[in-house]
Amino acid sequence: MNEPFWTVLEIITNIYQSFLVMHFICSSFNNDFRFSNGKMIFVFGSLINALLLTVLNEITSYEGLLGIIYSIYFFSFSLLFLKGSVLKKLFISIFTNLCIAGISSAVPSFVSVVLKGSMDSIYNTNSVARLLTIAIVQVVLTYLFLVLLHFTKDKVNSLKAKEWGLIISIFGISFITFLVIHIAALTSDLTSSILLLTAELGIILINVVCWYITISLSKSNKAKEELIALNKQNEYSQKYAQTVKEQYEQTRRLRHDMKQYNAVLDRLISDKKYDEARELISENYKTISQSEVVIDVGNDLINAILNSKLTLTKSLGIDVICSTEKDLSGIESADLCSLIGNLLDNAIEAAQLCEPEKRSIELNISTSGSRMNITVRNSISRSVLKENPKLTTTKSDRSEHGFGIKTIKFISEKYNGSTDFYEEGGFFISRIEIYRQLITE
Predict the structure, then answer these.
(1) Percentage of the chain with pLDDT > 90?
(2) Given this model, what pLDDT does residue 286 score?
(3) pLDDT confidence of 293, banded at 50, 70, 90?
(4) Is the pLDDT of residue 396 over 60?
(5) How far is residue 14's CA from residue 6's CA, in Å, rounded to a whole number?
(6) For residues 111 and 17, what is the distance between their CA atoms, to the nearest angstrom?
(7) Which of 14, 65, 260, 421 has the greatest CB tally within 10 Å of its CB?
(8) What pLDDT is stored for residue 23 in this prediction?
(9) Is 60 exposed, middle or buried (0-12, 13-18, 19+ CB in 10 A)?
(10) What is the pLDDT at residue 18?
């Protein structure tokens, strides 16, 4: 086979592998390929990686420890263009490179042992063995990344910093060990190559086990977080069920008082005591205003959370605007109460820190078919996301606080929705999109 063929083959292979790898990395951080921005990020990252591969292949037939450059590139790319935690980006960068190094090292070792040839000839000779090696490496990488993506995309998130550190360390040490073993195998005889290939396969198995532990640990942490969120949600449900009961009792008392009020008012008017009648009307108006039902969506539990929170907001001197659909069906009442309650709790807490004349909260609940959008817009005294980008609790007792945002995200995920928190013009905006489970006849 002539040299131009191998040159074209190398370029095609580099481009294919780069697109494969960058698709795995971008998908691991939920890059949206449906929009032009997501596509541009993916294509740009792939082409730069292909260029990097081609340049390094011109410098050396086997990168060895130079392969660390790829991890540095993956990490830098994900930091600049992808959303997610820094520790997960570091994990994905090292793990992706470990997969590439492992397969790119193990397959040539295996081919050389089967064909009883040297690995040096596979890397430096234009032969059938080299062509076979290239094909097998790309097939294995394709299958591997497709399988791993199923787990990495959604299930490697709920790890603590210490857990991330230990796992990243294992993968980093494995990567370097892999390269050292393979460099030794390049200059070894057939018997030594078999032993070194066995060592490489052993490292692969160790990392498979480590990967399984990572997934299991992440699932366990996520289950724990969900359990805490459910407990907090149950607390909200009990709290507002009690509020409904209290409002019902208050309504009964008002009905009883109104009977007495009407009787007294009728007597005062009959006796032409108009001043006393006006005073009685004024006092009664104040009483009714304090307990009036501001919002009615046809659900007692949701009415309770809306009215109790909005009444509290007004009593704190916070201007409030609320607009909502009449039909909020399709979402469990307990979930919707917990979602609205946590959003308004956060908004009230932030608005109270503003100057009195700048305190305001807007709540909008709208529906379109099965989709429900909940938007809370509250004034802030300073940037929240700049000081606390992860929106973690700032209270001293972290064991009892900090579950509001987690609960909001948990409920959103339950209804296949999304959450978005951002700032605009001195306001913090929480936008939640969830999908209702409507019953169709």
Answers:
(1) 17
(2) 63
(3) very low
(4) no
(5) 12
(6) 20
(7) 14
(8) 92
(9) exposed
(10) 93
Spell out the domains of the chain, with CATH numbers in brackets. 3-229 (no CATH), 295-441 (3.30.565.10)
Pairing of strands 360-368, 319-324: parallel
- Higher-pLDDT residue of 284 and 105 is 105
CA distances (Å), origin 83, targets 25, 28, 136, 157, 218: 11, 10, 33, 12, 19
For 355-388, write each residue's pLDDT tens digit: 988 999 999 999 988 899 999 999 999 888 887 7
Q: Which two tokens stand for residue 276?
A: 């006393």
Lowest mean pLDDT among 123-127, 226-230, 249-253, 385-389: 249-253
Q: Please give the distance of CA 3 from its chain centroid, rounded to a whole number.
A: 48
